[in-house]
Amino acid sequence: MEHKILNNIKSPEDVKKLNKCEIDLLCNEIRGEIIDVVSKNGGHLASSLGAVELTVALHRVFSSPHDAIIFDVGHQSYAHKLLTGRLHRFATLRKEGGISGFMRPQESVHDPFVTGHSSNSISAAYGIYKAKVLSGEGGTAIAVIGDGAMTGGMAYEALNNAGAKKGNFIVVLNDNKMSISRNVGAMPRAFTKMRNRKGYHKMKFAVSTLLLKLPLIGKPIHNFVFSVKEAFKSLVYKNNIFTSLGFNYLGPVDGHDTEAMERLFTIAKSYNQPTLVHVVTTKGKGYSYAENQPKDYHGVSSFDIGKGKDVSKCKTYSDVAGEALCELAANNKKVCAITAAMTEGTGLSDFAEKYRSRFFDVGIAEQHAVTFAAGLVSGGMIPYFAVYSTFLQRGYDQVLHDAAIANVPIKLLVDRAGIVGDDGESHQGVFDVAYLSTIPNVNIYSPCYYRELKNLIADTADKKELSVIRYPRGVENNNFDGEIGGDYTVLDNSGEKAIVTYGRIFNFAVEAQKSLDNVDIIKLNKIYPIEEKVVEYLINYKEIYFFEEGILSGGIGEHIGSRLLQRGYSGKYNIYAIGNEFVGASTIPSALKKYKLDTESMIEIVGK
C-alpha cells in the first residue's frame, strides 16, 4: 500500500519530526497497513490495532534501541515493526522466511528480546535496564504489558524485584480490559477502580508538566511536591498494588491520545525510580468488526476486510474436546474444566455456560492451574485442564512435583500438540511428549480422530492415573474406518517393514501404505509408558520406520529404539522427527513436508 507518511518512516527518529496532523495521519496509515496485511496473512489483529497510538507515543519520547522497548507476548508489536524500518517486509508477516508475528532480536536491533509467551516482559526489561546501568551504557528499558498478562505470576515476581529501587525503569500497563478471553480475578477489578480517577490524574499531569519546564529549580520542586503528594494521597486513598510494590503510579491516560501519553512518558522518564504508566486502550481500535468482537479478532486467519472474518467454522479437535467434557459433566457432577485464559481457544465456551460452578478460568497462570487441579482431585473432584501444548511448558514443575510424585490423577487436555504453523517458534507444540515422558506416573495418549478423542476423555475420567490426552490444531482428516483400541492398533499387510507412528500423521501413513508393498502400520494409541507387548511385537520386523510429529530428542521414537536395543534388536531402525531446532513460521503442510512427515515422504523413505 502507498502511504503519505508511513512510507517515509525509516526509523523511530523520523517519528519524532512529525507534527500533530501528521501523527494522526500516521496512526491511520499504520492501522490500514495492519488490517490489509493481516486480512491476507492472518495474525493478531485486535491487540495490534489497540496499541497504535501507544506505540507512536513511546517512539516519540524514547529512543530505540538506546532505550529498550519490550512488548509482552509481542502480538501487539505490529505498529512497532512498521516504525522500525520493516514496512518493506511487512507483507511477509508470519510467512515462511518472512518477519515474525512477535518480537525477534535476529530480525531487528529494535527488538531487544524474544517474545511469544506472556508475563515475561517486566523481568526481561528489568534485566536489560540493570545491564545498562552496570555497563554505563545509559538509556532505560520499558516493558509494555497488557492487563491480561498481568494475571501471570511472573509479572509480580518481577515487580516485586524491581520496585522500591533507584533507577529510571518503566512499565507501561496497556489496559484494554481483556486478554484473549474475558479477564478474571481481582486484578482486573483493581484496574477498573484506578480508571475511575481520571480528573485527579489530569490535574497531576498538568502540574508536573509545568514544574518540569521551569529551568534549574523545576525538577527539585517537582520531586519535592511529588513526595508530599504521595504522602497525602496515601492518607486519602488506599495505595494500589503498584505503589505498594514501590512504583510511582501515573495514569490512567487515554491510550489513543498521543499528546497525553507523551506528557506522561516524559514525566516517567524524569524519575529516578521505577514507574508504572497506566494506559487505557480499546482493543481493535479503528476497525469496527474488531472493536465490537475483540475476542474473535484476537488471532485470525485471512478474511475479507469489508465483510469481516467468516464466523462459520468447521468443527475442530478443540470443539470436540469441549463437547466430550460437556457430555461427561452432564452425567458426573465431579467433572470440572479448567482453562488459563483460553476459554474459546480450547473449546470450553459451552462448558463455561452450562456448568458455571464447575468451570474455572484461572487467568494466564498455568502453574497455578496444574496445582489447583491437583487440589480439586484431593477434594474428590475430576478436573480436566485444557491447555495449549506450548503453554503447558510453564507448568512442568507443578506436573512433576504437585501431581506426579503423589500420583494425583489430574487430567491434562493438551491442545495444539504438534506443529501449529504461522505463529512460529514460540507456539509450536512439539516438546510436550519429550518433557512429559521424563516424569514417572504420567500416562500419555495421542488420538488421531474425533471419536478416539471423545472416547479417551470419557475413559480416563474414572482412571486413577495422571492422564495426558494430546491432540492437534484444526480439523480431522478421517481416512480410516477401522477399529482403534488398546495400547496400539495394527494395519497388517503381511510385511517385513513397519511404519510406527501416532497422532494425526497416522493419516499420512494410511495413505502411504496404499502405495507400498508389504508394509505394516502400527499406530500407538497410548504412547507412554511404552508397554512391553509393543516392543515384543515390533522386534519381529526387519525394518522399522518411526515417524513422529515432535522433537526427536526424548521422543517416543527414541524410547522405543532404546527398548528394542535392550532386547537385542538387530534390524534397521529409523526415526524421522524434528531435530535439534525450533520450527519456524510456515503452513502446517509445508512444515510436515520439510521434516519428512507427510505421505509423499513416507512413500519415498519406506519404499526404497
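the 2nd protein, sequnce then structure:
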Amino acid sequence: MKTIPVIIVGGGPVGMTLALALAQQGVRSVLFNNREGTTTHPRLDVINPRTLEIFRRLGISDAVRAAGNPLNQHQAVHVARSYAGEPVWKFDDETMLMGSTLRSREIIKDHGRDGSYPLEPMHRISQMRLEPVLKAAVDAHPLCEILFGWEVHDIEEQAGCVTVHAENVKSGEQRTVIGQYLAGCDGPESITRRRLGVEYLGLRDLVGEIFTIHLRSKALQNKFVDGIPPWHVWSINPHWRAIFVNPNGGEDYVVHKGVPPAEGQDLHALVQEFIQDPDIDQEILLSSVWKPQFIVAESYGRGRIWIVGDAGHQYMPTGGMGLNTGLSEAYNLAWKLVAMVKGWGGDALLESYGIERQPVAVAARDHVRLCAAAVLGMMHGENEGPHVREPIEERAPRIERLYNAWGAEFGYCYANDRDGNSPIIDAGNDPLPFYDHVEYRPTTRAGARLPSLLREDGEAVFDLLDREGFTLLDLSAKGGDTASLQAAAKQRGVPMKLLRLAEPYARDVYAADYVLVRPDEFVAWRGNALPDDPLQLIDRVRGARHV
C-alpha cells in the first residue's frame, strides 16, 4: 500500500487550509471529512488580518473577499436598545480598519513604510461562504485528495507511519490509508486528540448555554443607510440581552442570546422584541444551543500525530479568536511537515509546533476571557434608574478589544518567560519584546512575525518571501557577502532565497542588517553580521538537535 505524506482528519477551514499550504509547497495529502458537504450554518463571521495574510500567501485572498462582504461596506458596531434604533455607542474607527476594505487598504498603504499595520485588513465572511472557496481550491489542486463523507474511526501509530481506518458514511465502504504524518483538524470531539490521550487545560461551561438563531430578512436591511446593517448590534434592552450579527452585510443574521426561550415560545416573536417593527419579515432557518468554552489542550501532539484548530482549543467567540487561531496553527505546522517529508527538517522541528503554538492558544484564551467579561459587563449592567453605577457610554468602549486586538492576532512572539525560546529560533541576547493583547508594536526579534512593509515601488515584502523555504533579508547598505550562510543552507538541503532591500526605512523597521525569515513569515534570526558558524544557525532553525 502506497504511503501518503500527510493524512488530515477533518475538512473544515483549518483542515482544508493545511492541505492547501502543503500542496503549495509540493507535498501531497489526503483529507477525510465526516460531513458530505460544506457547512450550511454561518458560524464564523470574520477573518482577521493575519488570516488574510495567510490566504494571500496561498493565493486565495481575492476569492475569499469576493465570497464575503462587498469591498465598499463598513464594519460598524452599535450598542442600542433596539436593532435599528439610535445607537447609544458605536465603534467605526477607520484607523483601526473598521471602515470598508477599500478604505482600509488606503490606510495600510499610507502606513506601508513603518510596519505598524498588517498587510491585509480583516474581512467579514461567514463560514458557510468561506468553506466553498477553500473546497474549490483544494479540489483543483492535484496534490490534494479530498474525501468528504468519510468517517475516521481508528488511528494507529506504528514505527515510521500512521494508519487511518475510515468508513464511507453512506455506503459503509471501508478504507485504510497509511501516512508518514497525521494532523487532526477534527474539532472539539477530536478522535485524534482522544487517540493521543490529551486532556484540556482550563474550565468548561463558565457562562452557561448560549441560544443561537440563524434568520434571513431582506426588509431588515432597508432600515439602514444604503441598505448596509451594522456588523454587530449589542442589545442593552433590559428585556432582551443578546447580540445581533450580520456576517455578510446582506440578508443573513445570527442572534446569540444568553437566555434560551421558554418551551414553545415563538422564535419570530422573540426576535421581534428587539427588532421592534411588526412589518419586518423574517425567516427562521435554524436554532440551536451551545456551551461556550475557555479551554486549551495540554499538549498539541507528539511524534507523527498532531492536533490543530478546535481539536486543541475551544473559545467563546467574543474576539473571533477560534478559527483564526486554528488557521495560524495550520500554517505553522504546514512548513514543518513539508520539511520533514522532504528530508531537511531536524528531529526537533515538529516538536516546535506545540512549543510555539500552545502558549499562543493560552494567550488567546486569556484575551477571549477579557472580551467576554467586557461584553457581560456592558450587556448586563444596570443602564437606567437609580442603580446605575457606571453609565453605558463608559462601559461600552471596553468591547473595542473584540474588534481591535492586533497584539493577540499577530503581535505575539514564540518565546516567553515560562517556556523559554522555541527550539528553532535563535534570539541571542535579545530581550523579550513588548506584548499586549490589544496593542501591536512591530519587532523583528526572533520568534516574532516579520512586520509588513511596502517597497518604494509599492510591492509588498511579504509577496517576495520564499513560499517553500527561508528568506535571508539583506538590509546592509552596500550588500553584504551572504555566501557562507547560503552555502550552509545548501549543504543541509534547506531552501533559502536572498532578498536585498535597499530602502532606508526598511533597515530602520527591521532593526538589523540581516534578518532570516521562516516560510511562515516569522523571524528565525537577526543580526548585524552573519554568524561565525553558519551551519550551526542553519541546524538550529531547521530543528536539528544533533548533527
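The chain has 14 helices and 24 strands. The first helix runs from residue 13 to 24.
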